[in-house]
Amino acid sequence: MRYCINCCIHLLPNDLHRQCFRCRGPDHNNQKCPVCRGENKIPLYTDSKQMKWLAVLEVRTDHCESWNGLFCLRKGKLCSLMFGLIIMTLVMVSYILTGAKHGLLLIPSPFHYGAFASNPSLMDNESLSDMKDHYQPSKMNISYVKDYPSIKLIIDTITSKIEFITRQRPDLEELRKQEPHMFSVIPNKFLPNSKNPCWYEEYRGNTTTDPYATNSYALYSKRFRIIFDYLRKVFWNHLYHYKDKHYRLRCLPHFYIIGQPKCGTTDLYDRLRLHPDVRFSAIKEPHWWTRKRFGIIRLRDGFHDRYPVEDYLDLFDLAAHQIQGVLQSDEGKEHGRRNNIIIGEASASTMWDNNAWIFFYDNSTEGEPPFLIQDFIHAFQPNAKLIIMLRDPVERLYSDYLYFASANKSAEDFHEKVAESLQLFEGCVLDYSLRACVYNNTLNNAMPVRLQVGLYVVYLLDWLTVFNKDQILVLRLEDHASNMRYTMHMVFQFLDLGPLSEKQEALITKSPASNTRRPEDRSLGPMLPTTKAILRDFYRPFNTKLAQVLFDDAFLWKRT
């Protein structure tokens, strides 16, 4: 096969290519040439056979322009192809996101934890011994389920596995080994002339020393710095001088409002602090016992440096200064006046949040935490008083969802998250004890909604293993909302607070409610009736046990 050097077209055996003007030489006239004028067109031949099914190839005068046109044509096609791919990608992404939310996908969605099958035989029957692998997203093709009968089978499985087994209380020496620094700072005896647990601690700094320079609460949060700036100014004035040494008064809370979240603890806190004999920590919820002492600032941010017990005690310095004022007054010195001011702390995580234990304490053989928050509180304060505010766990969970969910909130989305959480919880109780699942960090982080917080009786029974029943006051938010004066009187009596004037009592009981549901959340309306029925079935055995422990059928929440 021969080729033309000028135009790179095959030279055919019958020599039709001689019509090319470049092959004729410089005397060729473009105007007279029939090929250049388009009168005759040269069909392309390959091995003497005419390719009639292809387009006719015209030999043009300007060869460079033909190649430029071809390049532009290819570039245009490439741009069109890329634009088409982008449009197709956007359409597919929109389809996946919309279809995954409404259960319309024809293939499994990777954005869901798991699903339920209407047939129990289709449920995952593999071994659940590996907790980490078990809580991975399911590959089943059902992501949005409202089938009450199928979910009821899951609840029945959970109910069949419920056992309320008494927890073994750890020895004091075991607690000392776990937290030696804490035991070196907090004494085992407190001042006898103070109702609140307080003691004097030697201060070895001088007038130029900043006692709050390393306080983690001040370092990690701007809103606490104003409080600590004030404490720095008055700190030296509140030191007690004795035999050329300086002492500061340290205090722990006399009582704790330990739970539960979204059950009215903020409203109770706001009313109690109006009592003239009640003081609180510098911030409502230090979360020190449950999180900060382990280095947890925000759960989503992982672990930071652990907050030492001194940082926690600093939060009570404002109240300690007032207690010291009573103890150091002339009347207090001469007549042995007893301090009646008491301090409270209101971290709503104290009752239930023991998720950090698995990272700091040796695992027990049954997957249960060997030490709980109440073990340490009781070790230092065996006479502490505890207040618990509860509400219908079904309504609590919905309120919790509305408060913490950041986007796409709806009754349908809540239903889906409840269904996913129930499946995860069922998977745990099949292989582990109820207590192990309730305190399981992996499970609790995997569940889209905090089902475990509403299992009140599980936590209460564990607190009753270390504290006496008369040290714990359990209230209902429903009673508090309907008869606030009565519930506040119960609290005053429980804390052994002095009588109030009518004006003081009116101020406490008639103040507007605190931390109510936000308007944008109220506009979403109630949960779906199916969701409510599912949650009623789930919480029923736990509420029944709670009512038995407290000897009060109101905790069955049948009328709410």
From TrEMBL:
Q: Does the keyword Membrane apply?
A: yes
Q: What is its EC number?
A: 2.8.2.-
Top-tier EC class: transferase
Domain Sulfotransferase, which positions? 253-517
Does Transmembrane appear among the keywords?
yes
User: What keywords is this UniProt entry annotated with?
Assistant: Membrane, Transferase, Transmembrane, Transmembrane helix
**Ranges annotated as spanning the membrane:** 78-97
GO molecular function terms attached to this record:
N-acetylgalactosamine 4-sulfate 6-O-sulfotransferase activity
Database matches in InterPro entries: CS_Sulfotransferase, P-loop_NTPase, Sulfotransferase_dom
An example Gene Ontology biological process: hexose biosynthetic process
Entry superkingdom? Eukaryota
Q: Which Gene3D superfamilies match?
A: P-loop containing nucleotide triphosphate hydrolases
Q: Which family is annotated?
A: Belongs to the sulfotransferase 1 family.
Note the PANTHER family from the entry. CARBOHYDRATE SULFOTRANSFERASE 15
- Name of the protein: Sulfotransferase
